[in-house]
Amino acid sequence: MSIHINAKAGDFAKTVLMPGDPLRAKFIAEEFLQDAVQVTDVRGMLGFTGTYNGKPVSVMGSGMGIPSASIYAKELITEYGVENIIRVGSCGAVGKDIKLRDVVIGMGACTDSNVNRMRFRGYDFAAIADFGLLEKAVASGRKLGVNLQVGNIYSADLFYTPEPEMFDLMEKLNVLGVEMEAAGLYGVAAEFGAKALAICTVSDHIRRGEALSSEDRQTSLREMIQVALDSVAG
Ligand SMILES: O=P(O)(O)O[C@H]1O[C@H](CO)[C@@H](O)[C@H]1O
Ligand SMILES: O=c1cc[nH]c(=O)[nH]1
């Protein structure tokens, strides 16, 4: 057991899919994994391990925001020997060419969080995805015919931002999606020697005021989950 996870040693697979929402973790375990068993429930942050195409895979919620996600990612890596963490999240978008339901893969993650500067003596650490995981996810998305966008994303500390003018800059600099965990996850992976990737479904378009219904959200998240699972155990 670790401080925030009450699974036993060996309960987690080497690869963990990590949505923000613990109930999305449950949905993935029930709908996509075979023989899934719940392995942790501290604070309701549910985690499960099962198989996909006969290969062991785990899924666990991260909670919202870099501080929460960093705790779980760090403990999974250092206490449970997890090697690959793939965030399967939702994000907002600002770009004209991005549509609801597009699947955005975060090759890099900008942030207003200070966590990676804390790790890097105040300098700018480039928070990037593991190239091998990225390559496999792109290949799996292409094979499935999913509308993929690959590039920079932005991990915000504040969902309700006091700086909406940042959205203009993000559009200008071609930031594809706004979410709240990827830059922290990439920093944790670098610090503790694991591999990480963030994949997000566009759930709302900030400029156009569009948002997926809960039903749409469910269906389009399926595509992203399939991309993630096929890329690690296809
Ligand atoms: O849908 P998830 O994975 O939680 O991701 C996004 O949704 C939450 C905000 O509503 C934040 O965690 C953000 O990153
Ligand atoms: O963090 C998030 C998630 C979805 N949409 C946003 O605008 N931000």
Identify every distinct bound molecule in the structure, by name, code or SMILES. 1-O-phosphono-alpha-D-ribofuranose, uracil
Q: How big a fraction of the residues is strand?
A: 25-35%
Q: What's the domain count?
A: 1
Q: Helix/strand/pairing class, anyone?
A: alpha/beta
Describe this structure in words.
The chain has 234 residues and is of the alpha/beta class. The protein has one domain: Nucleoside phosphorylase domain (Rossmann fold, 3-Layer(aba) Sandwich). 35% of the residues lie in helices and 29% in strands. It has seven helices and ten strands. Strands 1, 2, 3, 4, 5, 6, 7, 8, 9 and 10 form a ten-stranded mixed β-sheet that branches. Strand 3 and strand 4 form a beta hairpin. Helix 2 runs parallel beside helix 6 and helix 4 crosses helix 7. The chain is globular and about 45 Å long. The model has no long low-confidence stretch (mean pLDDT 96). The structure holds 1-O-phosphono-alpha-D-ribofuranose and uracil (URA).
Question: What are the defining features of this structure?
Answer:
single chain; 234 residues; alpha/beta; Rossmann fold; ten-stranded mixed beta sheet; 10 strands; 29% strand; globular; binds 1-O-phosphono-alpha-D-ribofuranose; binds uracil; Nucleoside_phosphorylase_sf; Nucleoside_phosphorylase_CS; Nucleoside_phosphorylase_d; glycosyltransferase; transferase
